[in-house]
């Protein structure tokens, strides 16, 4: 019986220790780069492959390129691209930058492209590339891609400036979830069919809103994005619940306020 | 299942041969030599093994219980060795209990000065608590009222079952844990209004401890009871049975309760929609006595409520489930300098589902045009250890308490407009509360007439959410990085008793308390508060709320008369309350965030008198008053009951009892209009009458109650949404007892 007594006493003590232990749980983890292949082209025995984090869509897309000869990476001197939309009567490019070595994983070259329209009956997208190897050899080619439409890009025209068009891209969050999210926009304008400079000196007015039906709705906690350079505007948005939200964005220029652009999207619970 | 019941019946039948070696003792008052009835006789582990009868008689087996302790309200507890003990035992009367607890016996039926309520077993727990002076009930309908002690409820009081922490799962407070113990399973309620038992309660908050019935080592006994009430078609069926084996090794107690009700009818024959409910409660208790005088207890409660209407709220509970388990080891007495008394392991889970599918959501003003099914769940595991220790020649009692609890709650919103997608909000997600506390109690006899009790507690409390997305909401809201919110909390109390003479005592209690915000105040999100119409967000960075409570009590008592008068004042610092969050508020949705808003003050008192006249007539009078003020806003705190009280007159003869009761309340004109949106409440006076008759050698009892005789339409100030009380109603109870006398 004394044994039972000791067992129970030990159990009681153990339970106390367990309570302490469960409060010290570690949840650290490192995310991996998960990419999907988009397309690849082989030129003179060198394969140029394009990967992306998701299906390519209107708005901002991160591109990851591989340049391989056989199964090994090929060192290169330069890498440039030009996305082009070929339409029946015209063609144009879109905001983008050239690939550069991806520091977090040096087997890739990384760049961003903001597609201002989707592929479809209106036209199709190709990316022409030019790669210079360490031996000075130039590799050129074209890679057709499919661009889907999304809610993450909208455009407005400045009626006070010859209807100059501005592209407002919802950069972040890519997958809005309940809770706090980085809120980032890219703003570009169109100078020519091949030139889409970033607009970095504007102010943004944003207002998130949830329409709950019946004429009711509410906003949520957020901080207004501010200019960070290269057309980037950063703030944050704290979604109080999942469901369909809208966020209006107004670009305020030096002496001009552009019409309101609207993003409508779903926020996930988790 | 059939085999289980058969085994149970055989077990109970075998228990009839109990007590061959028992010895009979008589317990008398040392001054008057009158029998002391209903005194509790405890074994060496503190377990009640029997009670004295009307002649002060009780039986114990000296071989099994070599040492017993006898307790009775109004008497000094005494411990005796039973082997050579005289057959007549005397207890010394006192007028003060050092633990400052008001103990309300749940199953007393004797009409004597020591009992508080004597014919209440047919009442629901809600009504039972509502009758206690200093306790008010916050009501959201006809079911599951939420108790408040001296105006403090929820996070500002401890509400425990057998000392166990059990947390409600409903963020709208539809499931206070009082609903999980039925009155026929109630042994007693310990109400510590000032929170002075700091060592035990861990934080100095007012405490209500609901203590359940234990199995006794007595012959088999079974009680059947049924109650019907009209016009609300309330019906209740209750059964409890207990027994033990002939060797006093095993004891078992089982109780089952089923009750249901239709809509209540308020005064003037006005039916109140959505006040129906249906509920099942089962309780099993087992005790095993070890040969080494240790003992083991196992207790399991399951409570299932369905279709519970809450007219004050936007929705009704479709399902409320609670499972509560406890394993307790009682240590035998020993003389070691450091010793254990009991060790408890417990676990419980509460699940709560509600929706508004049965409501007209299209035309309501709040959350219009959408259904909002909600779900909540809490899971708690804990341990409680206590014992005694001798530290530097001082005897102390020590209490160790540790628990961990996880809370979850969400609300879906389904718009009637098909173009609006469903929405989901987490009210709580992976919110963990962990608590470890150690308390010490010391009693000092300063002189023959002066006693001092000192309690102190140190507590570590941690609250956090392990959901990254949920945590990010608070990080974004307050623009701070969130880590587990940890606090070391200190509390202490001192109670000084002056025994002026054998009939009169004065006592003074000082309590200092530190309170960390609870999981709702820290991590609640979009929690709708029905008293002010705001949605509340938690604030993980709340400072510790501190209080100082001063309590004065005077008690005068003779054999037939008692008068107890208490006054108190409590000052809050860093008072936690909601402040308006205007950035996202609009006409449809208004939001508040919890914050430390400054100071608050509470003052009040209770008066209770009991008079027995010629042992047949009994008068009870109870009056309570509470003044509560938000100092920063310079307005009253919300949900504070007005001056109120009750009067009870009973006449008892051999087999009958006639009772007449009055419940009254003054109007409440002190209302909160800034921090809440209260309205004034009219006073009321409600009369009731009841008849009780015993038959068949007291084995059959019938009780007839006529309540609210004038069919007055009224509501209490603490009724959210001004939901009225029942109008005229009739309740009939039949109770039959089977077993050896």
Separation, N- and C-terminal Cα atoms of chain B: 30 Å
Overall number of domains of chain B? 2
Low-pLDDT parts of chain B are: 1-20, 95-100, 105-120
> Strand fraction band of chain A?
over 45%
**Annotation field: number of helices of chain B:** 5
Q: CATH class of the largest domain in chain A, please? A: Mainly Beta
Judged by helices, strands and strand pairing, the structural class of chain A is: mainly beta
Count of separate structural domains of chain A: 2
CATH architecture of the largest domain in chain A: Sandwich
Radius of gyration of chain A: 25 Å
Report helical residue fraction of chain A: under 10%
Overall strand count of chain B? 45
Determine the number of helices of chain A (DSSP H or I, runs of at least 4 residues): 1
Give me the count of strands of chain A.
Answer: 19
* Mean pLDDT value of chain B: 88
In short:
By secondary structure, chain A is mainly beta. Chain A is built from one helix and 19 strands. Chains A and B meet through α1, β13, β14, β15 and β17 of A and β24, β26, β27, β28 and α4 of B.
Molecular structure report:
- The complex is a heterodimer of chains A (about 270) and B (about 750).
- Chain A is mostly beta strands and about 270 residues long.
- Chain A has two domains: about 110 residues, Sandwich (Immunoglobulin-like), CATH 2.60.40.3340; about 120 residues, Immunoglobulin-like (Sandwich).
- In chain A, a hairpin with a 6-residue loop joins strand 2 and strand 3.
- Chain A starts with a helix and ends with a strand.
- Chain B has about 750 residues and is mostly beta strands.
- Chain B has two domains: about 90 residues, Carboxypeptidase-like, regulatory domain (Immunoglobulin-like, Sandwich), CATH 2.60.40.1120; about 650 residues, TonB-dependent receptor, beta-barrel domain (Maltoporin, Chain A, Beta Barrel).
- Chain B contains five helices and 45 strands.
- Chain B is globular, with a radius of gyration of 26 Å.
- The chains are: A mainly beta (about 270), B mainly beta (about 750).
- At the A-B interface, helix 1, strand 13, strand 14, strand 15 and strand 17 of A face strand 24, strand 26, strand 27, strand 28 and helix 4 of B.
